[in-house]
Amino acid sequence: MCILIFVGTNGETYFNTAALVSCVQNFPKSRGPVVGILKGFAGLGGAILTQIYAVIHSPDHASLIFMIAVGPAMVIIALMFIIRPVGGHRQIRPSDGLSFSFIYSICLLLASYLMGVMLVEDLIDVSHNVVIIFTAILFILLIIPIVIPISLSFSQERRVPAEEALVLSESQKQDPENSEQDDGHEIIFSEVEEEKPKEVDLLPALERQKRIAQLQVKLAQAAAEGAVRIKRRRGPHRGEDFTLLQALKKADFWLMFFSLLLGSGSGLTVIDNLGQMSQSLGSNNTHVFVSLISIWNFLGRIGGGYFSEIIVRDNAYPRHAAMAVAQVVMAIGHFFFAMGWPGAMYIGTLLVGLGYGAHWAIVPAAASELFGLKNFGALYNFLTLANPAGSLVFSGLIASSIYDWEAEKQAQQHNDGQLNLASVLTSFLNMDEPLKCEGAICFFLTSLIMSGLCIIAAVLSMILVYRTKTVYAQMYGKSRT
């Protein structure tokens, strides 16, 4: 079983990485929406497969395992020949904003539909024919987004070659030697980054470009005359392509890693212990909260990508500002769990699910912007190590230890209040059964600790925002002007 779980989980990670790397490279100007949609469907996949399995209606659990093993692989093999790299002007289309808005609408409709279907199937004993109808509608919602690439292929494919030829001919007329001089200008520009004063980055965009151009000309003239020796830079700057070893030497990378560890680790702690949390507060509908946090997790991924893209596109501000907001939202959700008020489980599940999901839309997009796309797969998967590391520490050590401690205290108080032969005999017979804790006290301290960790994570995110403000202003400021 350990070998099978090892192969299965790593296979899922591989497909996840392949999809993210391909789409982020094909849509470099829409990284937030792309990552949000992909990670959102990764979180919603379990609910979709569960609904498909409900149609099979087989009591044999082996059929479920067989479907999960064969079904996704068949889909991937069928579609892998269609996916291809998109280059040049085709990466950016005027209709991209409208297309992503349409897909966002379908995602929200799909999440709402799945949540409604799960509640109906849970509360009402529906017939098998009704389940088939529900699943058919689900397939229709899943297929609708394919209308976008089909319509774009037919409407714009014929116009692209003529426009491309016109653009190329105009550029060649204006600068016929451009291709021969590109390499030299790239080298000089990278050396300008080393030579320019730091206060240049604080100037307005037009003045900054003027200063850099003047310095570039001076360095080129000096290099041609042999009067000065231009200092070669020792490594890439933010926004360029880093290797994993180069990124590991940067404080920005570790700020991102520990912010993700604290934020996603605290969210995963809630997901791991959601059953015990609901039972301790007297709720027997554990599966309802599991389904709800899956839906809110999906919406958090979709919303995190959309919200962070607004911050980047409209304000040229670092994407991690959205991460700090999500972590503050999670801190409030953990506080509701700690208080144990009536309805706190629903509010806490909503807030923690949204914040946890937003992490997985914001972090990959920010990592690709700060450390480049060339080695994005290695960088992203190293960052994802923060998730199991946080779960191991927070859930495996903190949450479980505090829960067992509170359960032992309650058992001790119960035994002290009923010191008779029957209670001693009952406790002796139930020695092998795990102790259960009841009341808000079971996760009070754990939730307060998780809330504090989310606040620390938000502070780390804001430090990263402060450090990368000029980078995002250079990367996205031009599109605003």
TrEMBL record:
Keywords: Membrane, Transmembrane, Transmembrane helix. It is a multi-pass membrane protein. This is Uncharacterized protein LOC104231909. The keyword Heme does not apply. It is found in: Membrane. Residues 1-150 form the Nodulin-like domain. The keyword Membrane applies. The lineage of its organism: Eukaryota, Viridiplantae, Streptophyta, Embryophyta, Tracheophyta. The chain crosses the membrane at residues 37-56, 62-86, 98-119, 131-152, 253-271, 286-308, 320-339, 345-367, 379-403, 443-466. It comes from Nicotiana sylvestris (Wood tobacco). Residues 247-409 form the NFD4 C-terminal domain. SUPFAM superfamilies: MFS general substrate transporter (SSF103473). The gene is LOC104231909. GO terms for cellular component: membrane. InterPro entries: MFS_trans_sf, NFD4_C, Nodulin-like. Belongs to the major facilitator superfamily. Phosphate:H(+) symporter (TC 2.A.1.9) family.
